[in-house]
């Protein structure tokens, strides 16, 4: 297989960093658009300094110029866009009841999780469409949903709404881009052990250990999500698009 180029937003820590490691291990070129490079995991800086196949742009997914610099910089360095992974996401800065949420928090979450995902996907797909297919595809796009696209959290309506929106983006792009041989999937993590969930670590540990909410009764790890994405773009799902892969320890399975 030709060396593939993977683009990921928010790859400096958490799940994104796990995905970066996975694809570097597989011999891919990896490029990262990361807003908080200064606050990235120290191991990310070490990887960046020692790995010529890894390139990072300090930028914001919400800024059209940063998105374009990311895409054009990737093409200049590595020649192609093979796999776009829309991982960057935010939770509300303050959890507030649905009756107290303000417009600033709504815009912060919806812009990053949904609007930026849409416009980065749109522009990437325009560029992928112009590429020659390799192994039957011009590109893959992976979106990050969440169990909160269907599980209500009354203190995080912005997050729930943004992830429900991502579920539909995935379907619209999958339908529209299939004739271009560009395949689109959603990964839907459950609770994964990252800086994002560190503020509610005890609550989720209780759900896992005492409340029987997760059939596979352990915290998810970034590597669990990274391996699922690796499988999705392996070429083994060549007659599937628009699929949702739950990476949630079976949380979505209801039991009476
Ligand atoms: N951790 C979980 O349990 C969980 C569950 C479901 C879904 N998710 C989703 O998985 C994705 C990754 O989550 P995580 O837990 O690793 O989060 P995290 O907060 O640990 O890491 C997110 C990364 O994205 C970067 N980022 C944030 N805003 C950005 C912006 N505007 N531009 C560029 N980079 C930006 C951050 O700097 C950080 O490096 C998110 O989309 C999140 O909603 C996470």
**What is the overall pLDDT average?**
97
> How is the biggest beta sheet arranged?
7 strands, parallel
The set of bound ligands, ions and cofactors reads:
nicotinamide-adenine-dinucleotide
Q: Could you give the order of the helices and strands?
A: EHEHEHEHEHEHHE
Low-confidence stretches: none
CATH topology, by name, is Rossmann fold
Question: How would you classify the helix and strand content by structural class?
Answer: alpha/beta
- The helix content, as a percent range, equals 40-55%
Please state how the strands of the largest beta sheet are arranged side by side.
3-2-1-4-5-6-7
Structure in words:
- The N and C termini lie far apart (47 Å).
- Strands 3-2-1-4-5-6-7 form a 7-stranded parallel sheet, sandwiched between helices.
- With 256 residues, the protein is α/β, with parallel strands linked by helices.
- Helix 1 crosses helix 7 (222-232) and helix 4 runs parallel beside helix 5.
- Helix content is 41%, strand content 15%.
- Strand 1 (5-9), helix 1 (14-25) and strand 2 form a beta-alpha-beta unit.
- It has a single domain (5-246), classed as NAD(P)-binding Rossmann-like Domain (Rossmann fold), CATH 3.40.50.
- The structure holds nicotinamide-adenine-dinucleotide.
- The site of nicotinamide-adenine-dinucleotide has 28 residues, from helix 1 and strand 2.
Care to give the gist of this entry?
The chain has 7 helices and 7 strands, in the order E-H-E-H-E-H-E-H-E-H-E-H-H-E. With 256 residues, the chain is of the alpha/beta class. Bound molecules: nicotinamide-adenine-dinucleotide (NAD).
């Amino acid at each position: 297989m030709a060396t593939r180029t993977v683009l990921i937003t928010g790859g400096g820590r958490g799940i994104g960093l796990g995905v970066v490691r996975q694809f570097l291990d597989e011999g891919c070129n990896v490029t990262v658009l990361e807003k908080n490079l200064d606050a990235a995991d120290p191991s990310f800086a070490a990887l960046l300094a020692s790995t010529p196949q890894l390139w990072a742009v300090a930028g914001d997914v919400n800024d059209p110029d940063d998105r374009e610099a990311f895409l054009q910089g990737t093409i200049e360095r590595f020649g192609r866009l093979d796999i776009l992974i829309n991982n960057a996401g935010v939770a509300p800065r303050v959890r507030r009841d649905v009756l107290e949420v303000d417009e600033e928090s709504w815009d912060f979450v919806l812009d990053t999780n949904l609007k930026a995902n849409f416009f980065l996907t749109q522009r990437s797909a325009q560029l992928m469409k112009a590429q020659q297919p390799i192994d039957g595809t011009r590109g893959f796009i992976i979106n990050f949903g969440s169990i909160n696209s269907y599980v209500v959290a009354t203190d995080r309506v912005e997050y729930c709404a943004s992830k429900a929106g991502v579920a539909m983006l995935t379907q619209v792009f999958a339908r529209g881009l299939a004739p271009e041989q560009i395949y689109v999937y959603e990964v839907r993590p459950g609770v994964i052990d990252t800086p994002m969930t560190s503020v509610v670590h005890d609550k989720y540990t209780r759900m896992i250990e005492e409340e029987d909410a997760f059939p596979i009764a352990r915290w998810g790890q970034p590597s669990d999500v990274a391996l699922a994405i690796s499988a999705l773009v392996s070429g083994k799902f060549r007659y599937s698009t628009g699929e949702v892969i739950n990476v949630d320890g079976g949380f979505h399975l209801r039991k009476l």
